[in-house]
Design brief:
This protein has three helices and twelve strands; from the N terminus they run E-E-E-E-H-E-H-E-E-E-E-E-E-E-H. By secondary structure, it is an alpha+beta fold. Helix 1 packs across helix 2. The two termini are about 20 Å apart.
Length: about 220
């Protein structure tokens, strides 16, 4: 197996609407950079690329548009291009806003398309012999179930941890943390982690990759 990597910053313009809440927020600055990270893989016959972006969400149509652009530019199958987001609530607007009449900036969405394309292309150019190692553990006390059955029989979302009318949570959180470490010959090692949590900073007018960004920074510092 061969594996390649590329990381590119995706800074939104000043004043960009921030996604994720029921009130309008306009970007006033940046706490930490947002990135798109691309990991490319080859088995000697076929190639694939996975892109992870510090964005709240992208529509299916937008993802298909970006995947098609990447596939055409890089000469790989569209089915071999995968895109995901970390769901930061302090990222730029990339779909119509349900809190206002704001729409995503066409210029920024075009910038994302080109940047995603370039990240994928550079990752594919960076392919080096690699070995992968997997592990799994648990990360307790980070995630929680936010839907609760109340004492009156109704169901509420986030009623508050000390709400005396709460009866019980509707389920238990999945606290499994899956890890994939890729050792590359002649290149930096890669580390992919998967943890199911709703990345959600409460409020704020500043761009941030949120919990996922800090997790990535911690891992990059460790390896």
């Amino acid at each position: 197996m061969k594996c390649g990597f590329c990381k590119k910053v995706i800074p939104p313009p000043l004043g960009t609407p921030i996604v994720g809440y029921y009130s309008e927020r306009l970007m006033k600055g940046v706490i930490d950079d947002l990135y798109v990270r691309a990991a490319a893989f080859s088995d000697g016959e076929k190639k694939a690329v996975v892109l992870a972006a510090d964005l709240c969400l992208l529509s299916g149509d937008t993802c298909d548009d970006y995947r098609r652009t990447i596939a055409d530019f890089c000469g790989i199958d569209m089915d071999a291009v995968f895109i995901c987001c970390n769901h930061t609530h302090t990222g730029p607007l990339t779909t119509p806003d349900f809190a206002s009449d704001k729409l995503p900036s066409p210029q920024y969405m075009d910038f994302l398309r080109v940047t995603f394309r370039d990240a994928a292309a550079y990752a594919l150019e960076d392919l080096k012999p690699a070995e992968a190692y997997a592990a799994e553990t648990t990360a307790e006390g980070i995630s929680f179930v936010r839907r609760f059955r109340m004492k009156d029989g109704t169901v509420r979302t986030n009623p508050g941890p000390l709400n005396p009318n709460t009866d019980h949570a509707l389920g238990t959180p999945n606290e499994s943390l899956k890890l994939l470490k890729i050792l590359r010959q002649g290149g930096d090692d890669l580390f992919i982690f998967n943890f199911g949590t709703h990345t959600d900073t409460v409020g704020g007018d500043y761009i941030s990759a949120d919990y996922s960004g800090y997790a990535c920074a911690a891992i990059e510092g460790a390896i």
